[in-house]
Each structure stands twice: as C-alpha cells, then as structure tokens.
Amino acid sequence: MAAAAAAAGGGPQPPQPELPAPGLALDKAATAAHLKAALSRPDNRAGAEELQALLERVLSAERPLAAAADSEEAAAAGGGGGPGAAEEEALEWCKCLLAGGGGYDEFCAAVRAYDPAALCGLVWTANFVAYRCRTCGISPCMSLCAECFHQGDHTGHDFNMFRSQAGGACDCGDSNVMRESGFCKRHQIKSSSNIPCVPKDLLMMSEFVLPRFIFCLIQYLREGYNEPADVPSEKDLNKVLQLLEPQISFLEDLTKMGGAMRSVLTQVLTNQQNYKDLTSGLGENSCAKKSHEKYLIALKSSGLTYPEDKLVYGIQEPSAGTSTLAVQGFAGATGTLGQLDSSDEEDQDGSQGLGKRKRVKLSSSTKDQSIMDVLKHKSFLEELLFWTIKYEFPQKMVTFLLNMLPDQEYKVAFTKTFVQHYAFIMKTLKKSHESDTMSNRIVHISVQLFSNEELARQVTEECQLLDIMVTVLLYMMESCLIKSELQDEENSLHVVVNCGEALLKNNTYWPLVSDFINILSHQSVAKRFLEDHGLLVTWMNFVSFFQGMNLNKRELNEHVEFESQTYYAAFAAELEACAQPMWGLLSHCKVRETQEYTKNVVRYCIEALQDWFDAINFVDEPAPNQVTFHLPLHRYYAMFLSKAVKCQELDLDSVLPDQEMLMKLMIHPLQIQASLAEIHSNMWVRNGLQIKGQAMTYVQSHFCNSMIDPDIYLLQVCASRLDPDYFISSVFERFKVVDLLTMASQHQNTVLDAEHERSMLEGALTFLVILLSLRLHLGMSDDEILRAEMVAQLCMNDRTHSSLLDLIPENPNPKSGIIPGSYSFESVLSAVADFKAPVFEPGGSMQQGMYTPKAEVWDQEFDPVMVILRTVYRRDVQSAMDRYTAFLKQSGKFPGNPWPPYKKRTPLHPSYKGLMRLLHCKTLHIVLFTLLYKILMDHQNLSEHVLCMVLYLIELGLENSADEESDEEASVCGPERCHDSWFPGSNLVSNMRHFINYVRVRVPETAPEVKRDSSASTSSDSLGSLHSSRRPKVLQRENSGTAQVFSLVAERRKKFQEIINRSNSEANQVVRPKTSSKWSAPGSALQLTTAILEIKESILSLLIKLHHKLSGKQNSYYPPWLDDIEILIQPEIPKYSHGDGITAVERILLKAALQSRMNKRIIEEICRKVTPPVPPKKITAAEKKTLDKEERRQKARERQQKLLAEFASRQKSFMETAMDVDSPENDIPMEIATAEPQVSEAVYDCVICGQSGPSSEDRPTGLVVLLQASSVLGQCRDNVEPKKLPISEEEQIYPWDTCAAVHDVRLSLLQRYFKDSSCLLAVSIGWEGGVYVQTCGHTLHIDCHKSYMESLRNDQVLQGFSVDKGEFTCPLCRQFANSVLPCYPGNNVENNLWQRPSNKSIQDLIKEVEELQGRPGAFPVSISSETNLSKEMESVMKDIKNTTQKKYRDYSKTPGSPDNDFLFMYSVARTNLELELIHRGGNLCSGGASTAGKRSCLNQLFLVLALHMRLYSIDSEYNPWSKLTQLVEEMNSQLGNEEQPEVPILYHDVTSLLLIQILMMPQPLRKDHFTCIVKVLFTLLYTQALAALSVKCSEEDRSAWKHTGALKKNTCDAEKSYEVLLSFVISELSKGKLYHEEGTQECAMVSPIAWSPESMEKYLQDFCLPFLRITSLLQHHLFGEDLPSCQEEEEFSVLSSCLGLLPTFYQTEHPFISASCLDWPVPAFDIISQWCSEINSFTERHAEQGKALLIQESRWKLPHLLQLPENYNTIFQYYHRKTCSVCTKVPKDPAVCLVCGTFVCLKGLCCKQQSYCECVLHSQNCGAGTGIFLLINASVIIIIRGHRFCLWGSVYLDAHGEEDRDLRRGKPLYICKERYKVLEQQWISHTFDHINKRWGPHYNGL
Predict the structure, then answer these.
(1) How far is Cα 1846 from Cα 1862, in angstroms, rounded to an integer?
(2) CB of 1043 within 8 A of CB of 996?
(3) Does pTM top 0.90 for this prediction?
C-alpha cells in the first residue's frame, strides 16, 4: 500500500486524480488505527513515511481544484461536482486520521477535557452585541461577550452594551487587559494545576497531519492568487475564498477544542523546520515548484523582496542607497511628488528637489528600507498572514488567527509576525477598494495585540515597533503631499497633505493611527518614544505635513462655484493623527521626573516650527485673506508647555524661545481668532457655508481642547512675554479695526467695510476679554476646569446627562483621569445641577430627564466668557443670557435686562503673571478712553456689547493692578516713551484719573471739524480717523495739553523693530525705527487733514457721564461711600453683583475709589461740579433722515410686537378651550347643548366661512370627524392583571381568552345550529375592527368642506396625510380628521316635549313601539327625495363602511346579505358606546358628562345609523319585540321544517336587541318609548341571568333552590322575587336535557363555593350591569340627561332608578334587591316558560352547546397593553437573537407587538406577503390598522396607523431619565411606568393621530 501511495505521489499528477480505492474509502477508520499503531512504535519511520504518502495523495486532491478555480471554462466543464466531492473526501480523511481510528466527535470531546480554559477569547465579527466595563478595564479597549458579562458581577459598575463595529474578542480571564475582580465564574479559576497532563498518543496524529494540511491550504492560496497587471478583482479573490471555506472552518473548529489542540497548532504554525522542508520548492515535485514560483511572483509584485542570499544582502547593507530596492523605493516616492506639479520644468525640479529634501531623514537610515520593503517568511504562520493580507483580510481567516490568541506562545509569535508585515499591510490598505471593511478587520486584529502592555513592550524592544509604525505612517502620508500655498505661494518649500485625496477623505489612515495611539497609551512604550530623539524628529516631520493644510482663501468678488467639503477630513486628520497621539504622550508627562521628555518634545517642536517658518518664507506680516485652522505644531508646543508648568514644575522661561520667535508664533493663532470674527461678521459669505462649518468645528466640543484652547493658551504665553503695547496693537490690526479707534466722528477704514466694523470691533474686544480672563491652562485644577465647562454648558440650556458627557471636552486620551462617568464627573454634576425628572407636556411630546443649574450657580458661577468660548452657535450665548435674566427676575435680584455678570477669576499661576501687563499698557488705555468717549458722543457703529467689553476690561485691570501706587511715577522713563502726552504711566489705576485736554485727530477733509477754524477747540460729535503716521508736532500752542495723534500700526512696527534689534545686538539700546514714519494706510483715497478736538475728560469723568447717560437722569451718580463709609471696608456687595450697565459703572467707580485715595477724591470732585447738560447735537439733514427712519422702524417693531403678543394670547386661549386633550375641566362644549329651551333650532358655526345658522337639507352642516377601525375592545380580557410580555421560550400568550375571540366563538357556534339571518341579530360585532367615530367638535358646511379639500389637493406641500383618502386637518384646531358627519336638521332642544313622562300604561307603550317600528319612513326626510342631506348621509355611511376591512364587516354565510349591513350598523353604535364606557374607566361611577361626552358625536351618528337601519325592515313575523312582549301559541310548529330554527331569545345579546329596537324607531325618540323598551329588555336580561346562574351551580344547589322557590310562588310579589323566578327557571329547564350529562368534565365549571343569597344577588347584579351602563350612556346622549355619580357598590341601584326601572316609591332602607326592578309586560311565568321551551327543544340534541351558550361572560376588564419587564436587558437578550417563526431567520430589525406579543421582522423582505411587510400586515390583523411595536434593537416604540407611521419614543429610560435610541450608549434601561401609561392611554382613547405630530407614509414597507 505504501508503494502505491508513493507512486501516486511521485509522478506528475493526473488531471482528475482518482479517489483512493473504494476499499480504502470505506476503511478509513481501520487505516487510521493502523497508522496510529505504527506511529506509536519506538521506531516509527516507516509509519511516518506511510502517513506522508497517504496525505500526499489525499490532500493533493485539492490542487487541481485551484486550477479549476482559475479558469472559468474548466470549472464549467468539470461541472463543479467532482472537486467538491474530492474536497469533502480529503476533510473526512483528515478527521479520521486525527482521531486515529476512533470517532471524530469522541476525539473532540476527549481533547476538550484537557482544556485549561483560563481565557475566554471568544472572537466575534461586526454587529455582535458585547459589553465594556470601565470599572474593570485596564485597557480602554477591553470588551466582554454577553455570556461572560452576565456571569460576572458588575453591579454598580460603569458599563455599557455596544454593537461591535469592527469585531473583537472577549478579554475575560486576561489580567493584562482587565482586573481579575471582573472575570466571570468560568474564568476565575486559575486551572492550570488541576487539569491532567495530555496523554501523548491523543494528539500524536495531529502533529503529523496538521503541517501537511496547513501547507496544502497555503499552496491553495498561492495558486488561487493570480497576479494580473492590475489589482486582482474582488470577484476572483472571493471565489477562491469560497472554495476554501470548509478548510478554514475545519481549522477554526480545531481552535475551539481548547488549549491542548491550540498548543499543537501553535507548534505547527511556528515550527521553522517544517516550513522549510515543505515549502522550499526543491525536490522533484513539479506542483510544489510551481507553487513556490507563484509565491515569489506575489512577493515581487507587492514591492517586496525575498532576500534569497543572505551573504549578498549583507554586503549591500552598509551602502543603503545602492540596493536596487532602496533606490527603487525612494525613486518611486519622489516620483509621486514629481508628478504633482508638472506645469513647467523648473517647478517640477523644484518639487523633486523638495521631495528629496523632505526625505533626507528617511533614506539616511537603512532600517527604513528594511521596514518598508523586505519580507522573509520562516514559518507557516508568517506566510498565512501574508496571504491573509494579500486577500484583504477575509473574515474567516481573521477569526481563525484570532481564535488562536489564548495560546500565549502563539500570541507572541503572531504579534511579531504582524509587526513584521506592518508596512505591507499599509500598502495593501492603500490600494484596497474596500478600505473600510479592511480597516475594520485590521483593527479587529491589532487591538487584540497592542492593548496588552507587556506584549507591546516586548515587541517594541525586540522588533522596533515604534520605528516601524512611525515610518509606515510617514510613508503613507507621503503619497498625498502637495505644495503649501500658505504665505508665499511662489517660493514656499513646505508640503502639506492634500485633504481631497481618498486617503484622507475616507480616513484610510485610521487603523494605523489607532494602533499608534493604542501603544502610546502604555507608559513603558511611550517613554521609549519620548527618549528616542530620532523618532521625535521623524514624528515632528510627520506632524508638519498637517501644518497649514486645507488653506482657505477669502473670495472677494464671486461666490465660490464649488464648495469643497474637504474640511471635515482635515479636522479629523488633525484630531486623529496629531492631537490624539499628543494626548497619549502628555498623559505620561505628569510628574517632575518626566521633565526631560517635555524638554525633548519642546526642543524638536521649536526646530520644526523654525523650519516651517523658513519654508513658507515668513517674516512678520501674515498674507492677507487666507486662514488655515490647522497648526498642529503650534498646538504640540503649547500643550507640552502647559504640562511642563502645571505638572512638572519646569521654569517656563527655560523652555521658551527668543522674542522674535514668540512674535512669529503668535501670528497664526491670532490670525485664526481674527478670522473667526470675520466669518461671524459674514465677511466670508462668498466662500459658502463650509467656512462657517470650519469655524464651528474649531470650537466644537470634540475639537476645542485640541484646537482653540491650545491656540488661546499659546497667545496667552506670547502675550505674557512680549511687549504689551506691541501685542495690543497687533490684535487691533489683525482684527482690522485700527481705523475705527479715533476720537473723530468720521473716519475712513481702508481694510473693512462699514457694515462689518461694529462686529469686528466687538470681536476684537471679546477676544481680549477671553485672552485675559481665561484660566484653563493658567492655574485651574482639573476639577475646577470640569466644573467651569459643566456650568457653561448648563447655562446655555438644560442638558441631558449624555449630552453633557458629549459636550464637555474630556481629555481625549481615555487614561487621562476625567473619564466620562467617572467619580469626579458625577460629583461635580450633583454639586452644580438639579435633576428634573422626565415629564410630559399636554401635547404629548416627551421630555427627557434634564439637569438644570442650581440657583447658586446662576448667582455666583455663571461665566459669560466661558459660554462665549464654548458656543458653536451664537444663539446659545443669547439663550444663556435669557436664562440668566429669567433667574434674576424670578429670584427678585434684578428686574431689568441684566448685563453679563463679572466673575472673579482663579489666581494666575506665577509663570504667567506677565499676562496682566496687557491691562496696564498705555495702548490699551488709549483704546478704552477713545471708545468710552465715542460711546458717550453716540458715534455710529458702537453697540452695548462694545461698552460692556470696555467696562469688563477696565474692571479686569482694576482687579489685577499693582498693589502700591508709589511706583506709578517711576514707570515713566523720560520723554522718549511713546504716548506720554496721553497718559503719564502705565498703571490703569492712576491713568483713570488723568485728564486729557486736547486730541489731535486726522479727519477726511469733508469732516465737520475741518470747516471751522482748525485751532478752535471743538467737542462736537463729528467725524475723523485715527489712522495716521506720526508727524512732527505742528500746532504747539497748547503744548502741555494736546495729546498726540495715536497710531497703533506705526507703534506696532516700531516695537517689532525694537524687539528684533534687541535680539540682534545684545546691547539694550533702543533704535528708532526708520520705517514707521513713511508708512501709511494702503490706498487711502481721501486726503486727510489734522484737526484738534477739545476733550477735557478723564476715564473717571467719562464713566460718571456715562452713568448719567445710561440712567437718563442728570447727576444720577452719587458716591455711595459718602453715606456709608463701611462700603470701602467690605467691598464685596451683593447689590453690585448682578445688574445692567449702570450697576457695572457703579461697581467700577467703587473699585477705583478703593484702589486709591486720589481717585476717590477726584470722583467726589467730578460729582460736585454739576454736570452741564450735553449740548444739543447739530444734526445734518441726512442724519435726521436716518434717525427718522430708525425711529419709524422702532415704532413699527413695537407695534408688531404688540400685535404678535395679542395674537399669541388669543391663540393660547383658543388652544386651551379647543385642544386641551388632557384637562377637560376648562372645556367649553363646542356644539350648543340643550341649555336654552327657547331656541327652536340648533345653530352651527362653520369654521371655514364663519357663518352661523341651522343645518338645512339643501345646505347641511357637518361635524369634523375622524373614523378609525379599532380592535381595542377585542383586547379586553376577563382578568384584571395585564398579560406579561414573554421573555423566555416557556412564556407564551394565547389569544383565546380575549373578548374578540370569545365573541367570535359564540357567533360561529350560533351559526352552526341556527338560521343565519337570526344569528346576525342575536350578537354584536365590531369587537375587532369596529368603527370608532370621534370629533373635535367643530362644524362646517359640507360645501365649504368640499372646496377646502379641493384646495388641499392642489397644495403639494402638505405631508403627513393623504388628501386622496379624504384625510384633512380641522381648519380651526388642526386636529386630524377624515370625514364629515352631517348634522340632522331639526333640533336638539325639542327633546323637552319628548321627555315629559306620560301616564300611559306599559301595555299601551308596547303597542305604540310596535306600530312605530312597522311604519317605514317616519323620518321628516323621505329617503326617496334626493336632497343634499340624504346624499351626504349616504356618503358618510359609505365612509364608515370603508373604514374597516371587509373581513370585519361580513359575517354572514351568504355574502352581501342585507342582514350583514344591518348587523354592521347597529354594531357601530355598540362599538362607540362600549369605547366611551372604557374611556370612563369601565363604569359610570364618576357620573357627569365625560370628556368624550362634551365633544361627542354619538347623537348625530345615531341619526345617520337610524336613517339607514330603517331601510331594512325586519320580517314582521320575526321581530324580537313580539317575542318579548306576547305569548305565542304553538311554538313547536316550525321544528318540523327542514330549515334551521331561529335563535332562542335567551341566547340573544340584550344590548344588541336594545340598539336594534331603538334604531328601528323613528327619530327623535320619545323618552317614555325608550324607557318602555328598556323595561321589557330588562326582564329578558334578568331571566338570562337566572338561567346562567342555574347552570353554574351544582345539582344539590339546584334542587334546594327549586324547592325553596316553589314554596313562595303564590306570594303577592312572586314575580319580583329572584328565588321564585330562579326555582321556576330551573324547573322549566329541567324539562329539557340541559342539566343532564353532568359528566366529569363539567365538574371543572362548578364553583366550589356555596352560593349564599348575597353572592347570588351579586352575581345577578354583575350580570346585568354592563347592559345598564350602556343603556344609561345611550339615554345620556339621546336625551342629554346628566349621569349621577355614585359609589361602586350602589352603581346598580343608581343606574336602574336613573333609567326608570325602579318604581319611584321604592324604599331604600332594606338591602337592595335587583329583582325589584322587574316590570313584566305579560305574566312572568308564562313568558319564561315560553322562552325556556325554545332552549329545551335545542338541548334535546345539543345539550353541551346549549349550556355553553347560556353562560355569557359579560364582565370584561379594561384593555391593557402587555406588561413589560423592569429592565430592558431582559427583553433585549431574549429577542435580539430570537428566530422569526415565519422565515426561521434571526431578523435584522426584530420588533414585538405590545398588544399581543407577536414577534415580527420589521422591514423584513423575508416575511413579505402581497407587497405588505410583516409589521403592516400584523397591524391590520391585530389592531385593524393600528399597531404598536417595540423595536428590539432601538428600544423605541413605533406606531402604525393605517398607511402612516410615527416614532413614538421610548418607554425605557436610563438612570438619568434619558432615552437611548438605537442603544447607542448601551447603558442599562429601566421601564418608565408613566410613559407606558401615556402610551396605553393614547391607544385606548384612539388619540395617536392627534397627539403625535411627526407622521410619514410607510408604503407598506415596515
């Protein structure tokens, strides 16, 4: 045999190999056993050879298969059957051999017994539901499978459930990733000790067989991969993978056998000798050779080499450039750059040179080339991974490789292999078409490897993991670089990534970056990175690719044609590729010992920045009209500085560069702040919406702490170290408002349009306020920051817990300490906010649980600066101010419109003290002085906001002033200082009191100042400009008093020059700048001249005048300390903390007085001089015109406001009366009730045309109604407890105890034995699919309605309802409706005539009723005449019929029979009465008119139904009335006939009889006729009750009663004694067979209780009550009588007396007996005897059924939705994996019906029937068109109503009262009972259509 095998293996293979001989095939087990025995011998060489030969032959069966897969024709020719079979056979052999002759299943079980299951390691793919517990996780990526999670104890932990996006693996049992306390019960035991050793012979065969099997798999992968010229098509790869499916699954199953098998696999996969022997491609086997060649080709085509000869390679290594590969690699890389810009030769060369320059660092080290381009495979594992990558990570392979991870040895080997292939992975990823899927699969693997710190450290040390990652990232980004256009477009040498490239747009870099962030979270790895200077340089190089990307250029003329959306790619790239690694590194620089790291980073950062400034040729002026939001290098620098000062106690100056560098550093971040203001001022509108998007993203919560915060911090650092005058003037220059800062009233701005000036000035001042008052990085602790952020967010709006977590910028690195949900977050939240539980608004919109700021937070912590910094939308600032205002009004602190409060700041960290010098520099003081003056003089373009910010800055200056005043004078350094004629020193406190007499201004020649004598002093309000150069002083007359012209720009230039010179020549001499005197505004068209203004004010005097101006009174300011000297001692006065501008001014003056005695004195002096009134302004005609216009506008605005307010209040009062669904108390009945007897006809208002009048036959009026089919009644059950939703296989809900089912059974039972037409009168239908009619109470003319519908039809905009189906909204209250119910002419009021009790005897009344029923057209309107009214009546009847499905209308055996319609019509009345009863809570105890009663349309509905019922006359020989009121002779005559008998009267449903009788009468009905009908029917009902009772009790009871009753038969009121009647009924019924065959099965029904008289009375009353309730309701509607309220126990007696059943003389003393209501029209015993005989004749044949029909269950409880479990997880775990009973698949969107518990596939095409998806279908079957479904995967409830649907919301909320739609957050959810109650209420009251607003069509697709 061995020889045969060898022969087969040696020669060339035949094309279709023969399978092993049949004998062999049958005898696999024997062969395997034989081989196993041979191998177990000590000398097993022969056995081994034999096995090899066998395997060679068996497994070779697969190879031609590969060939077949390659060529389509071969596959077609082969028919596909052969190869599949061969494959099966091979696998069978393998299984047999592994088991060594035993059964494979037993073998598996045996191996499993040796599994030391310390790790779970369950691998899952995308969309799997897993858990993450932050309390137990060490790594942020930790995850658990549901089983391990539920088996562990995580109570009180911070966990959540999530849907895996990329797949993952369970970490249970791995103590490197999670704490042991979180392990589940299975993996807690460290079980290595007690697992026995694996017996050698168990796995011996595996060790021989598996290497061949895996090699076979690899050969297959090699052959399946055809390397075409282009990328292999997806299809081919997938085909190969499909064929390989069984093999890979086999391997996967092996891994699941546990640890013992995994360690064998590990040996096989990592054994290098095995690999070498099998794959070297040497030897005579041609197949193996071919396969090896394919492998080499694949390597080559991937740009990788297989270093054949180590020697040669070794020699080449030192001279890296010479290796062909290296050269090729770098040429390729530069080539890509070369192609970027081929416009002309020179440019191309430039960029190539630039490419080389950028790449110098890369090509200099040899290791990069080896990283990028060399792969040498030494084991199966390595080649398997290679092919896994080549085939783009097929899911099966990934799962197999991951399943092996619990084996520690494998884990290390695999991680090293993965790192070795890292560069190759990147290349494949870049080329892939399916980069998304591939990214997910890569991360699926890498997150398992790199989350483990021990492993990451090992690989970093042994395999240079960090070098590989950084290099690979760098290479990846190099493919998409373009030339930067920032600053100097022509000569820029800087390259940036191009955000439009797919690599960035599709986030392809994501897996690599995420791995990098993951390994940097390990301290040991991060430290290596921070210590390695080479790596830091390379990394900064990488970061600089993003510096200045996505440059925006402001469009000045045309609107941009195409709005590029690349900006999001740019923000994402900076956040993910730059900021997150930065936060990762920062998290390890927390202690003093890590100072060196910070110094390294800062040093290389500054070098990179210096290179960048050189590359873009930056000197000192940024290029105009361009901005980039991306400065990652600046931000790295800023954040490391901040860390250094905050945590590492580094001296800031030791890491700061020189002044010149600082000046450069501040330019670009400042440019961004100015551009933000420009964007908000609409100066960038021509760039489209995307620029607004960028401005918003820059400050948005996920980006702000990596973008705007570092920028502002960097500016704060620069400001604290640079000259303050220089800094302030730079700010105003960047914001382009320099020209505005002039005392003159006219100026000309060369860089800004007038309409933008105001908002840009506001922007500049706001920026200064933020810069000076923000302390995020300047001394606040983490908890203080968290608190400030939280307060800011809560002040804008109340927030839910999850939105707060989302809005508060957490340190992006999860290890940072402020983990969302962590202790500090919760404690801060409870300190600053109150929880508002979720509430409902009457409109039905549901609120979430919200947090709202506590009062003391508004009082003390509301910080407008923080709010402004954190708002994405400007409206949020307004919202915060509105809420603040409301708080002050409410708490009585301030009634008016307050200004933003001034908040005290955290003290500055000593390193940043210099920042406060900004507040004490003359430049700022001049600006403040000028602005105060301009505001006082009412110059244009100044707003309250500007004043507010000016005062804020003054106050900041006073708060942060130098303590002592003595050195004020010292600070003046002689005459050379700038601005000295303005202010003497630089301290704000002393400068405030300095009077300025004259100011020289430059004004356009047209300005009013010029026309007068220029030397005369003018203080009039006129125009000018401050933009000017410094001129020699001309007019020197008032030498001392005239202030110079003040030019910010010149000043800034001068300072810049000074700083540059200072840093050049170390000597501190000040060189006067040459440039500044020549400089003037570009393009200044108007000639400017100089004028001198007389000012004579100081800041203090301006403030006091401002106080007068704001308060509108002269001398309004009186220094408070003159009255109360205490104020100066304790300055913190609550009175001043909230208020408007007046308060702010008072507060500032008080602080100024506190700071210096001089100020105090001067304030007092100013106040003593009575201020002269401000001179009236001289107004030009043009100005007057604009002022008039303004005034007119203002007045118009006020008028409009007033009108709106009035309108709103009107609307509100209307809404309250007409719409309030929930509080009926304040309702006004819409239609006119019977209150005014003198009116003869009802008058209706038409809500369309507004006319009032009666409804007439020609022009009928109608009620707006909504008709809907309803099955709510059918859901009543007879038990009080609602059914529970099934949450396990055992619990099921069966519908046979519902009301609808019981009625169905009854009807079909009757139809089996009785005449069809009579059956249809004996019951009511409409329990399922009954038509419910409701109205909003508004009426309209029917012709008006038709034209209204026409206009709706032509209006295409309306969504949400379908006009073609007759749907509309009420024109007045907008309630949804779909029909109009005509109002019957005649009146509601003449009832009075009909209600007078008559004294006729009951016999006369009975006759009258009979006659009236016989008369056909007793209506005032004869049906024959086709009036408009009758047409409408018919059409509404048609609407009513079409509302419900045919199956709910047709119960007759003969389709279309008139009896059917008859039954349907009176059942509509029944449905509406029954539903109203349910709305009242199932009984009438509350009495009064109900909500429904007020807007009820039952009256009109009755008239329409009655009109139609009278079209059908009942055969007079069978009118139930006669059977009730007359004794008939010869009952038995009809039994002889063939046809089926009529239904016995005792089987009739009495309520149905009542409706039939009443609707057959001419309307309006007379009250005494009504009472007569009720009395007659009550006798029947009572008899039924007695019969039912007699059936229910036992034989002994019956005979006892029969006896006692018979004794009393001859007493006077025998007919009114239930005992007598009961005994009579029993004796009558005993004549038939009803009581016979009481077999064993009947015993179940017999109640064990002994019947006492009380219990019998109760039974009889309960039996009769439903009828009495419905009758009373009917009486209430027909005759407008109010229902009395009563206790539950007296409901029977109250209702019966109200209906007139109780004789008036009835005494209430002794216990009430129901029988006393009886009033027999004919002798009781005779009629009962007649009724019983009918039953007896039926029970002769069908005793069983006869009994069942007698016992009617009449006591239905209220309908309920299913009861839901407390915790949502119980629902989710059971249903989300449950299979659908229809299609037996697990639905993608499972849903469950909350009415009946049916499990359905939402949107599932699998369960579609006749184009209806399952949910829609179910809603029709279960709810007649109304469905309420809980979507399992979303926790949301969806409502289907007819052809529309809406998302209702969720009844499950988390611990913070929030919904979790789509389970995104995955927090535990709990039932909210109130919400569920509301849902149930809306279902029962049929108000879904009115309350839920967002409806859409579902097109049957749900």
Answers:
(1) 16
(2) yes
(3) no
